[in-house]
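cron nightly-structures :: item 1 of 1
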Amino acid sequence: MLEQEFDTAMWRTVDVARKHKYTPTYFMQMLEEHGGVQTAKRLLAGENPQYGLDHLWEMGLLHESMEAQVIKEKFQSLFTVEEINEAKKRLIDRGFNVG
């Protein structure tokens, strides 16, 4: 199921961050409580990007971010056009090539 694959991708983001000495505690709590898709939707609906996105940017790991997963063609059917565009905007604002 696609939602389960997205959940797995979100937990992989957590694993990558932890390997780089960053534990995204709030993100992990949200994943446990809401699952990957609803967590992404909630974070994308916020006015400002979460702190973790900038932390991943600083570590050169934007390609592992929740936003990078949202814009993958494979997962786009789980999100609205507005959510996908917001994810793209946040990545572009940090110099990520969404091409």
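cron nightly-structures :: done
The mean pLDDT is 95.
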